[in-house]
User: What shape does this take?
Amino acid sequence: MKTVIVSLLLSASVWAADAPKTKEVAPKAEAFQIHKYETQTLDNGLTILWVADQALPYVSLQMMFRSGSAQDPKGKEGLAAFTANLLEKGTTKRSASQIAEDLEQIGSGFESGTDPDYTMLSASALSFHKESALKQFAEIVLQPSFTNAEIERFRKQVLGSLQKMADHAEQFTEYLLPNFLYGDHPYGHQSIGTAKAVKHLKRVDLQKYYADNYTPQNAVLAVTGQFDEAWRADVVKAFEAWKAKTGKPVEVPDFPSWKESEILLVDRGDLNQAQIEIGFKGVPRNMPEYLEYRAAIKVLGEGFGSRLFEEIRVKRALTYHIHAWFEPRLKSGPAGIYTFTRVDKIAETVEETLKILKKFVSEGVTDGEVETVKALMRGQFPRTFETPEALARQLLLLNRFGISSDYLTHYMNNLQLVSKDSINAAVKKYFAPDNLRVVVYAPKAKAEAALRAVGPVQVKKYKDFL
Amino acid sequence: MLKCFWLSVVVAFSSVAWAVTPQDLEKAIQFPVEKYQLKNGMTVLLHNDALIPAVSVQTWYRVGSKDEVPGRTGLAHFFEHMMFKGTKKFSKDTWGKFLNSKGAEINAFTSDDYTGYFVNAPKEHLELVLQIESDRMRNLALDPKDVAAEREVVKEERRMKYDDSIEGGIREAMANMMFTNLPYHWLPIGSITDLNAASSEDLRRFYKTFYSPNNAVLVVAGSFRGEEVKKVIEKYYGTLPKEEINRPEIKEEEPQTKERRVTIDREAQAPSVSIGYRLPDLKSADNYPLDLLAIVLGQGQSSRLYKQMVYKSESALNVYAASWNQVLAGQFSLGASLKAKTDPDKALAMMEVQVKMLRDKVIAQKELDKSRNLFMKDYVDGLKRLSGRAHTLASYETLFSDYTRIFTDLKKYQEVTVEDLQRVAKLYLQPTQRNIVIVMPKKAGGGK
Assistant: This one.
């Protein structure tokens, strides 16, 4: 077996050797030290990250696959998430019920999360149950059975959840945005999929998706917690027989382009509040101005003290919550502003929010805001990577997006280089405030006139989406 | 000057032995804590951990919605919002731009029993954070203009979390029905009518009484020098005056002898059901088996309700069971989000079948062990982050005046027997003790 072990502490990683490096700045000695970790690549191509943590008696396994809902074939939206969810619903050795029983017997559980660009599987346990946790995790990942009975059972669950989503106003608005933003693009649906597509998923679809995407070369396993050499060898043994297979991921096209803003009003008469998602084109993760863009979003609308929070909540008392957000992806991900307000304040809330966005883009950030946001990002950094599990997750994501781990080791110094000019250049380059997709979930009678003053509105009933 | 007593548990957080067993988990999760009290009665807990260059400062007050009176429900939570509106010395920008500029993150929460504030900050700003937190303990401005604006913000919070939320609506209906005398009859969010009625004077009175050092627990966790931080705490908090705390009179609940039920008709895609049982107060040792009983019934995919209702009969999308420990009286809660065609009465009958089995027959030891393992895993997860440890310390100290229960409670859970589970099921989960909330989808054309 060919095993390469690299020990890393505050140095650029080689485990993503082909990844472009972020700005080259020598890390300073006083920089915050992230946990030590090691990487190992098995003969079958599986990369394993080891992050030892002696503080508490636990182990955690996180496996990331470089495939997600963007790989759903057209007409099969929801396939990636459906497949990930079915893994624990039966293996060639055990039924779904036995798996649930056995995992919970050791206080553990299996979790899967599907993002457009990746799928994350995880399980953790107290360290005295680590042998069983490993054995079960490996069996679930490597030997799923995808029985028709479990597929039918889970299909009903998904369809029921999609239907009920309309009763969770925030979640439903969030569900509607990707399609309004991206249309017929691989990012144009949430990973849960659509009812129309989920109704027709077949066992063979799951088997094919699994065979194409659940391969050791397509995966990185992060192991954290209290473990010894013997258990480490067990981990390697559990995955070394996994057969290599080269897959061909579907290429994700670039962001669709539009000419003007549009508003989708989804009518529901009984709501006391309007849910408002103002979506726009975001950024790819592997962009040179990533820190600048992050800083810009924070100044615009992340947390107490941001422009949107101060104007819309503190000064105008229009909402309890407002924030700007972005999801960096392989290709340009979505970004937006989310808020809600009472139904008689929809016009003011949307107009004022857009006014702030436009002013932000035209005038840019101030010197004071730059100093503040840099201090905030400096302060947040150690807290973000405080636990080895959080660090491991971050390393997995960096790997997925082709970013070298020197992003972490150079973070503090690169942050120092962020300036008013560099943030404002990024704002000018990436924000287009006249090119928006706004979803509003509210009673039509209260919202339509208010929204028509902002831009062209298409109105649909919420039941049209169920 | 610091008052004289303090407790200390000094076991290195990072020197756990390799072969930890469930029996010595208590030792394995130990972390160093020092407790003392200022002359004015404020309790201080220090947890020194230099793993990251940060601190978590938690200021919790022993006040919540249980300390409100009818007509002024929601006051404790409304007041919590006002704590971010500035003092003479620190303008309201402090809890936004200014603390951001120091790399800090802040927030707060209000429950029935307590109100907590936290600041997570780089270690070098610890003194500044303590100065700010001590100042707003006694010197809040409470500008009527800010009160008026924040009232609207709180009402938006209510609309979002309760009026437009099926789950929020269930919670409120359950509290209204389950408690007729205790102040848990209402939720911390309060009613719109009462929020409109709350005056600046109400808020000021509330502040003076309950935001006194003798009603507070201060937790400082993270990277600091112990002796220095004690001096800083004394400097900023030592001179704050204590107050006499008069809480509203409590009228105990009568034993519940009949099932109570309410149906909410609203626009919904499918029905939901919830069952609540009243539990004893926080001091009761029965809370240990009740916590584990909730796991047996409805936490996880191998729990009894999940297996029966989600997996076998496929009548529910999800189920839950929880035991909420509260100062005056707890709640044991079961719930199911049903599939569109499921009859709620049939779902309730299924839930009662599962509860009855727990009353009638002791469960297998293995099932108890499973619930304990799930419980311990969650317990340890909560201690992984510095802010999590600080939060847990503040919570235990605020509720029990004894943070050491973080460690010793594990033994109590280890001692729970299968007979204990049956005993508490019989004692607290009888059909006549049920409070039932049903959400029924309104029929088409039924109007609002």
Q: What stands out?
A: Chain B has two domains: 2-237, 260-441. The first helix of chain B runs from residue 25 to 28. Chain B touches chain A through 83 residues (CB under 8 Å).
